[in-house]
Amino acid sequence: MVTGAAAGTGRAIALRLAAEGATVVVADVDAAGARETLERIGTRGGRARFVRTDMTRDDDVAAMIAAAGGALRVLVNNAGGGGHVPPHFPDATAAQWGATLALNLRGAMLATQLALAPMRAAGGGAVVNIASSAGLGSGQYASPEYAAAKAGLIRFSTSLAGLRERMGVRVTCVVPDWILTERAQQELAAMTPEQRAAAPEPIPVETIADAVVALIATGGVLYLP
């Protein structure tokens, strides 16, 4: 199960897991993008289905986990975003910055909690959380709520190391810097040559997908500068 799999990093992860032989549940609020992910998986001989999911809604998250039908072995909490869209804390309203926390942290926490029982019943499983380097360091950041959510997601992941022995579930985390998604490509195209030269080298989405596969097998936290 991959959340936020209608585009970008989530789509790349879904494609890679399907190529590895997994039946993938594509979870996203974007139905049109999710259908394209399904079509790409299908044309490559993979198996996938779509569950429309708003990760800020508890009932949607519960329905998403239930859709796995007790066969859930891997959950990739990839859905997130909002860190680039103003206004940000403290100019944003409590509802606005709270929605960023809900999408980037609370949704992943709830999905993980609900996935534990079916994974344990299936003999074990793996949760991979996609965080961000925005959650690292001590300097200022344009979106404090996004940075706080990603920092929380990293610590949430490391705090659950004991679940491996207790339930056979490995909770892991990828912490990437700037990822070369469709939006990043647009941002690069809009930059001046000087801005592009000063920007960090974006990480290909396929590199994130490779990291997810590696963590499913081994566990831990993987930082991708």
Write a brief structural summary.
α1 (8-19) links the parallel β1 (2-3) and β2 (23-28). The protein has a single domain (2-224), classed as Rossmann fold (3-Layer(aba) Sandwich).
Report on this structure.
This protein has 225 residues and is α/β, with parallel strands linked by helices. The protein has a single domain (2-224), classed as Rossmann fold (3-Layer(aba) Sandwich). It has nine helices and seven strands, in the order E-H-E-H-E-H-E-H-E-H-H-E-H-H-H-E. The protein has helices spanning 8-19, 31-43, 58-66, 94-121, 144-159, 163-167, 182-190, 193-198, 205-218, and strands at 2-3, 23-28, 47-52, 74-77, 125-130, 169-176, 221-224. The chain has a four-stranded parallel beta sheet, with helices on both faces. A three-stranded parallel beta sheet has the order 1-2-3, sandwiched between helices. Helix 1 packs parallel to helix 2 (31-43) and helix 4 (94-121) runs parallel beside helix 5 (144-159). The protein is globular.
Q: For the terminal residues, how far apart are their CA atoms? A: 26 Å
- As for the number of domains, it is 1
Number of helices: 9
Task: Average the pLDDT over all residues and give the rounded result.
Answer: 94
Give the fraction of residues assigned to helices.
Answer: 40-55%
- What fraction of residues sit in β-strands? 15-25%
* CATH level-3 fold name: Rossmann fold
* Cα gyration radius (Å): 17 Å
Strand order of the largest sheet: 4-5-6-7
Q: SSE order in H/E notation?
A: EHEHEHEHEHHEHHHE
| β-strand number | 7
Low-confidence runs: none
| CATH architecture descriptor name | 3-Layer(aba) Sandwich
The biggest beta sheet, please?
A: 4 strands, parallel
Overall outline:
globular
CATH class category label: Alpha Beta
> By CATH's scheme, which homologous superfamily applies?
NAD(P)-binding Rossmann-like Domain
Helical/strand content category: alpha/beta
